[in-house]
TrEMBL record, chain B:
<keyword id="KW-0762">Sugar transport</keyword>
<dbReference type="GO" id="GO:0016887">
    <property type="term" value="F:ATP hydrolysis activity"/>
</dbReference>
<comment type="similarity">
    <text>Belongs to the ABC transporter superfamily.</text>
</comment>
<keyword id="KW-0677">Repeat</keyword>
<keyword id="KW-0067">ATP-binding</keyword>
<dbReference type="GO" id="GO:0005886">
    <property type="term" value="C:plasma membrane"/>
</dbReference>
<keyword id="KW-0614">Plasmid</keyword>
<dbReference type="InterPro" id="IPR027417">
    <property type="entry name" value="P-loop_NTPase"/>
</dbReference>
<dbReference type="Pfam" id="PF00005">
    <property type="entry name" value="ABC_tran"/>
</dbReference>
TrEMBL record, chains C, D:
<feature type="transmembrane region" description="Helical">
    <location>
        <begin position="264"/>
        <end position="282"/>
    </location>
</feature>
<keyword id="KW-0614">Plasmid</keyword>
<dbReference type="GO" id="GO:0022857">
    <property type="term" value="F:transmembrane transporter activity"/>
</dbReference>
<feature type="transmembrane region" description="Helical">
    <location>
        <begin position="12"/>
        <end position="33"/>
    </location>
</feature>
<feature type="transmembrane region" description="Helical">
    <location>
        <begin position="209"/>
        <end position="231"/>
    </location>
</feature>
<feature type="transmembrane region" description="Helical">
    <location>
        <begin position="118"/>
        <end position="137"/>
    </location>
</feature>
<dbReference type="InterPro" id="IPR001851">
    <property type="entry name" value="ABC_transp_permease"/>
</dbReference>
<keyword id="KW-1133">Transmembrane helix</keyword>
<feature type="transmembrane region" description="Helical">
    <location>
        <begin position="89"/>
        <end position="111"/>
    </location>
</feature>
Length: 304, 508, 316, 316
């Protein structure tokens, strides 16, 4: 029979997921199966999406869930609809918080990627020869989203381990996950600590860090006194690197949507068509991209 | 003189109702032309067609021989037609001056010329003798004052045709006189005036000619009003003779039923006391702003009383809750039907049974059969003109809406005290006598009834006792035997010595 | 009027338009009419459908409630946490219903007694309640200990999942309440003219409080079913639900100016929303285009409904 | 009434309450009153403040607009894309304003001419326009080629950033329009009593279309400033903006039932919203508690304002 595979993602507007879908489509074209792309922002939508796939006669699907705790529900729903299940990006967990190991997963560890950000900042601080005691850190936070907490904490843990004073870390809670909200929250941190002249910034993604960088610009802090490192590596970050003069947005940890999109789709196809079960766990790594090497890094990761 | 305003075979239908059928008549220049007819006869519809608000399905209007093709209210305005509608058309949040200029604000480049805005209005108001400040918000005016503001629209520009749809229904005789003087002045200038009213006295006092509508058709046209009699008009309107509109008959009164002691509230500072016996109909008379409506609202708990007590058959009535008042046996039929009376968007039936349906709704579940029976009964009894009891109440003519609200209270069971504020505002003669008849019947069953009315003949015609209010105080309390127009009016007027132009004109 | 026109433009016009649209979709979209898809579709509208019942009352009485989404999330969380702690699903259910009722009553009291604008009040409680949900769970989903909890949503009767039965029951009950009881008629009266209703003896403030309290309870029921379906209590669940529910009601002919509502209309409104989503996914329409299509469907549905009522009425 | 009470409960009551609250915050919250923080605060409310000007007209005329957030995002994107393509910032600006005007006009025409509920219409355009923004950019942020574009937001005059001047200008202009022009009075009139306005010869439909068109244009201005501030056009910008703007207006005493509005009130409303966010962050209040605090402040502000107006008026 014809192979039909679903690909459910939690934030369809995000470039990251657009890219995952794009690469999954490439796999579909290559192998000649049908790919059904559905965005599902919350638990209820995920349930409906799985039902919908079942009704369409799909044989399996890949999902990046809005919340990892939805695990048991997704597993049950997939079974009820007789669908094979794989996860991407975020790994499902049980009620007690332990990962559901039966479900094949390809992803990145939020904490790990955060640590990569932290390492990049620490390296750059050292390179610039800053005294950590004189540097402030903006923690653009969106604690409503568990992944966001893990990433930011990952980054800060590296900073602290390298002697960054905890008292110099300031929380800038964004009300929404867009640049403007991050900009407004960061501005307040900067104004409150007008004495600090050098800043680093971390956040859930590129947009958050960009907001912090814009805030430093608006209060007149020079670009070379700011080290912001984002996560993602999509257009917002690239635009920053393309600007004629360097900004405080120092770098971004790029994660590859190609493997996540293309390989998961391919593995699912093999599972359905050739009964070849995929590996249970594949973890991919992020890679730091800077103003002068981002093109190379992107090529290396198969984007572009 | 020549015909100036002509209606030629005007027809207009609404779903389920043919409001006007082939109506043709003409009015001479400088004439005040009366338009009469039962509630729902089509008077307001004709006026809406004249105002450009609604277009006729058929027929044409000519002014000064010229066929009017206007397609909007603005076109009618530019053709020199001004209409004062039956329901108040004011914007509460704007000032008096702004309301009067609405649609045609003075100024250049869209910026309002404030001096002209207020100046012209002060002038016009003073000219016609209306005492309100142009810069107050309409929201803070009483109904009577609002009606006067509405009427002032007629003189904001020099109009060729002015139509007034029941302008006096919420005015007392004093304000009415101001209006009449104004109309006389406009007539002298050659303006054509179309005047709708249910009050025959006014028609005879003002009009030169008269048209009677019935069921949307022209029932009679009288080019000269001096050639008709009241009874003739009534039978042209109603299709039957009404010998005595009031029909008052003697009754014996029982024990005290309603007792009011020293009540006062935000707008009535001076404490009031009075009582009403079983079977008694007490009339409250006064000028606009005398505080009668405030008194009624305090008694009913529609506004919270700051002091005093109300009791029915010796049992105290809570101070601030209409539902509790109803359960204690008091109901109030409010004066402002648009804001306090009708429930827009709901059917006649629901409007009628909103309060009484609890009597036939065990466990809150309505018995639809009983509900429709009750509605049909009062639609027939009050002669509400409608295609169906399921009709949305906003589609009824003003007078018919008033009947439905009355029906709401007349259909209540177990009521001991009935307070009606302006019961026959906008109601046609035929229905009036039906309503009075119902009131007498209720009184004979032992109900205590309070009637508030600004129509002196009505108060004198149907009540057993009249209490006159003046500036928030009780000014006189007269049994039927002592009813006397001059005495009542004198008691109602605030300060006789200070006002030179007191309208002592007799109201027939 | 020809009789076809009469049917289309009559009281049941929306229903007829809907039936036609349904028939077209059934014939053209593959898999749409399958039993599985129908059940999936119905399950996907359970939350909206249940809450639309009381939202209809709320709007009909000229009020507005933006806090439903938060209340669903919060009470779902409470149900899960309480049953985890107590070990009894029933305790969880009761706790959730209690929380819903409390939130609703607070809304009602603030709006009806302190006379504060409903939009602002419920916007405020929407945030406060969401805050509580986040605080209680530290922003993370709470797993369900007792698998029996899943059965609320998974169990079936006559082959149809329980939540669908619950929704159907709510439709019937609230339809009856609206048309045949004093409560329903008074709700419509309040919406038509609150002051006139008060003077006619309706205890307007008490009615409004009841309506909000009911809404809170109904949100709790929806929240419990949702938690059971997604097998966890999620503090971020049901964001944006309020607008979907209100849209469904307005689509179904409930007037935001109050005084007008019908259960059949609301059911159709709910189904239109659900079918639109369902069909877009069946047809594999791209995410960005889904926004556009969703907007157009919304517009089209009210436009059609409006043509009908303009033809029916004259003046407003 | 004592004179203190008179001032508190009078027309300017909200302003007085605000002044007192401002004084308290200034004294108790460290860093609040610093020049830098004040400028930061004002910049953070530029988008809300600018759009509140026309939203005030929209609400005062008894309408409602949920599409502002999407229009801001879309026109910001258009500005960036058009100036990238044409190489001229001016062309970008004009294109954005044109787009805003088109969206607004469509809203207005659908609502006023086809008589479709404003909530549904703008909910639909909100989604459609957001869809367009996503489609046009393929869901990605669009970078600005010409750094001159950044100057729109970065440049200063007398030490104060341009966007703040723009907002101030809008406050003055729209305050004047509301109180002193035919347009403003007609807006209040159609909100206060649409029927009476129509019968007085006000072209209600045309007014409403104009108001929406203006709103679209103003959103475009806000969108351009926002894009310049964040140095890119972002299709996901300004989500949820509509509710913030409407809240600010209602806080400022604009009646959702139409007919009542004042520019000073709206300015105060906008500032209250901004100060609340600012102070919470200055005081380092945790994100989850911020939800709760935000809700409580909203409630408190209307409650105070309400006490005032209940005491002032009697019957409505
Ligand atoms: N919008 C409408 N829809 C349906 N029927 C209407 C509408 N407007 C008026 N009617 C009907 O048209 C008829 C004439 O109404 P109209 O208002 O002209 O009466 P009227 O003579 O002014 O009565 P009243 O003395 O009570 O004011 C009535 O039967 C009324 O119910
Ligand atoms: N909405 C209102 N706001 C402020 N004052 C009011 C309002 N309505 C009435 N008043 C004032 O209350 C007083 C009494 O009102 P009202 O005119 O209703 O008395 P009334 O004797 O019932 O007269 P009528 O019923 O003939 O109009 C007047 O001074 C009036 O100006
Ligand atoms: O939500 C994030 C998404 O933004 C992308 O960065 C990939 O990982 C997911 O967890
Ligand atoms: Mg009439
Ligand atoms: Mg009165």
């Amino acid at each position: 029979a014809d192979v039909k595979i679903g690909f459910i993602v939690k934030q369809p507007e995000e470039p990251w997921f657009q890219d995952e879908w794009k690469f999954a489509d490439a796999a579909a074209k290559e192998k000649g199966f049908t790919l059904v792309k559905i965005g599902a922002e919350d638990g209820e939508k995920v349930q409906s999406a799985i039902d919908n796939l079942g009704a369409q006669g799909a044989q399996g699907f890949i999902v990046c869930t809005p919340d990892v705790k939805l695990g048991p529900g997704i597993v049950a729903k997939a079974a009820a609809n007789d669908l094979k299940l794989m996860t991407v990006d975020d790994r499902l967990v049980n009620a007690d918080g332990s990962p559901i190991e039966d479900v094949p997963h390809m992803g990145i560890s939020a904490t790990k990627i955060g640590e990569a950000v932290g390492q990049a900042i620490v390296d750059e601080i050292k390179k610039r020869g800053w005294d950590m005691k004189e540097v402030g850190a903006i923690r653009v936070s969106y604690d409503q989203l568990p992944t966001a907490v893990d990433r930011v904490e990952g980054a800060l843990s590296v900073l602290k381990a390298n002697g960054f004073p905890e008292a110099n870390i300031f929380d800038a809670p964004q009300a929404k996950t867009d640049t403007e909200a991050a900009l407004n929250a960061s501005t307040i941190v900067l104004n409150k600590n007008a004495g600090i002249k050098k800043w680093v910034a971390v956040g859930l993604n590129d947009e958050a860090v960009l907001g912090a960088v814009r805030a430093t610009e608006s209060v007149g802090i020079a670009a070379d006194s700011v080290i912001g490192v984002g996560i993602g590596g999509a257009e917002s970050a690239i635009n920053e690197f393309k600007k004629p003069a360097a900004t405080g947005f120092f770098g971004t940890v790029i994660i590859s949507p190609k493997r996540h999109g293309y390989e998961t789709a391919l593995n699912m196809y093999d599972w359905i068509a050739n009964d070849k079960e995929p590996e249970k766990l594949i973890l991919t790594a992020g890679q730091l991209a800077l103003r002068d090497n981002y093109e190379a890094v992107r090529k290396e990761l198969g984007i572009e | 003189m020549q015909d100036f305003l002509e209606f030629r075979s005007i027809s207009k239908g609404y779903p389920g109702v043919q409001a006007l059928r082939d109506v043709s008549f003409a009015v001479r220049k400088g004439a005040v032309h009366g338009l009469m007819g039962e509630n729902g006869a089509g008077k307001s519809t004709l006026i809406r067609v004249l105002s450009g608000d609604q277009s006729a399905d058929h027929g044409e209007i000519r002014i000064d021989g010229e066929v009017q093709h206007y397609r909007s209210v603005r076109d009618a305005f530019h053709a020199g037609v001004i209409v004062i509608h039956q329901e108040l058309q004011l914007v509460p949040e704007l000032t008096v001056a702004e309301n009067l200029w609405l649609g045609h604000f003075p100024g250049k480049g869209g910026v309002i010329d404030r001096r002209k805005l207020i100046g012209v209005v002060s002038e016009k108001l003073a000219e016609i003798g209306i005492d309100v400040d142009p810069t107050t918000k309409v929201a803070s005016l009483s109904i009577g004052e609002r009606q006067m503001v509405e009427i002032a629209k007629a003189v904001m520009v020099d109009a060729r045709v002015i139509a007034l749809d029941e302008p006096t229904s919420s005015l007392s005789s004093r304000e009415s006189e101001i209006l009449f003087a104004l109309i006389d002045r406009l007539r002298a200038k050659g303006t054509v005036i179309l005047y709708v009213s249910h009050r025959l006295d006014e028609i005879f006092r003002l009009c030169d000619s008269l048209t009677v509508l019935r069921d949307g058709k022209l029932a009679a046209h009288h080019p000269d009003i001096s050639e008709v009699t009241r009874d003739q008009i009534i039978s042209e309107m109603v299709g039957r003779e009404i010998a005595n509109i009031w029909g008052w008959r003697g009754r014996s009164f029982g024990a005290e039923r309603l007792r009011i002691e020293n009540i006062a509230g935000p707008k009535l500072r001076v404490p009031l006391s009075f009582s009403v016996r079983r079977g008694e109909i007490v009339g409250f008379f006064g000028l606009i702003g005398a505080g009668r409506s405030e008194m009624a609202r305090l008694v009913y708990g529609a506004d919270t009383r700051s002091q005093g007590s109300v009791s029915v058959d010796g049992a105290a009535v809570p101070a601030d809750s209409p539902p509790k008042s109803i359960r204690a046996g008091i109901v109030l039929c409010p004066e402002d039907r648009k804001f306090d009376g009708i429930v827009q968007g709901r059917s006649i039936e629901e409007n009628m049974t909103i309060s009484s349906r609890r009597h036939f709704s065990p466990f809150g579940i309505i018995n639809p059969k009983k509900e429709s029976e009750l509605a049909e009964k009062f639609i027939a009894k009050l002669r509400v003109r409608t295609p169906s009891r399921r009709q949305d109440i906003v589609n009824l003519s003003g007078g018919n809406q008033q009947k439905v609200i009355l029906g709401r209270w007349l259909s209540e069971e177990g009521i001991k005290v009935l307070i009606i504020d302006e019961p026959t505002r906008g109601i046609d003669v035929g229905a009036k006598s039906e309503i009075y008849e119902i009131l007498y019947g209720l009184a004979e069953q032992g109900m205590a009834i309070v009637v508030i009315s600004s129509e002196l003949p009505e108060v004198m015609g149907i009540t057993d006792r009249i209490i006159v209010m003046c500036e928030g105080r009780l000014a006189a309390d007269l049994p039927r035997a002592e009813f006397d127009e001059r005495r009542i009016l004198a008691a109602a007027l605030p300060d006789i010595k200070n006002s030179k132009d007191i309208p002592f004109t007799q109201v027939q | 009027m020809t009789s076809l026109k009469k049917i289309l433009l009559g009281e049941q016009g929306l229903v007829v338009i809907f039936a036609v649209a349904f028939a077209i979709v059934s014939l053209t979209v593959p898999n749409f009419l399958s039993e599985r898809n129908m059940l999936g579709l119905l399950q996907s509208v359970v939350t909206i459908g249940i809450i639309a019942c009381t939202m209809m009352f709320c709007l009909a009485s000229r009020d507005f409630d933006l806090s439903v989404g938060s209340t669903v999330a919060f009470s779902g969380m409470v149900a899960v946490m309480a049953s985890n702690v107590s070990g009894s699903i029933l305790v969880g259910l009761l706790a959730a219903v209690l929380c819903g009722a409390v939130v609703g009553t607070i809304n009602g009291v603030v709006i009806a007694r302190f006379r504060i604008n409903a939009l602002i009040t419920t916007l405020a409680t929407m945030q406060i309640v969401r805050g509580f949900a986040l605080i209680a769970s530290d922003g993370r989903a709470v797993g369900i200990n007792d698998p029996g909890f899943y059965q609320l949503a998974l169990s079936r009767f006559l082959g149809i999942p329980t939540p669908i039965w619950v929704m159907g029951l709510f439709f019937i009950v609230f339809g009856f309440v609206l048309n045949r009881t004093v409560f329903g008629k008074n709700t419509l009266a309040i919406g038509g003219n609150p002051e006139a209703s008060r003077l006619a003896g309706v205890d307007v403030a008490r009615m409004r409080i009841w309506i909000f309290a009911l809404q809170g309870i109904v949100c709790a029921v929806a929240g419990v079913l949702l938690a059971s379906r997604i097998t966890s209590g999620q503090p971020n669940a049901a964001t944006g639900l309020e607008l979907s529910v209100i849209s469904a009601c307005v689509l179904g002919g409930v007037s935001l100016a109050g005084g007008r509502a019908a259960m059949t209309g609301v059911i159709v409104g709910v189904l239109i929303m659900g079918i639109a989503e369902n069909v877009m996914n069946l047809l594999n329409i791209q995410a960005f285009y889904q926004y556009v299509v969703r907007g157009l469907i919304l517009l089209l549905a009210v436009l059609l409904d409006n043509l009908r009522s303009v033809a029916g009425r004259q003046r407003v």
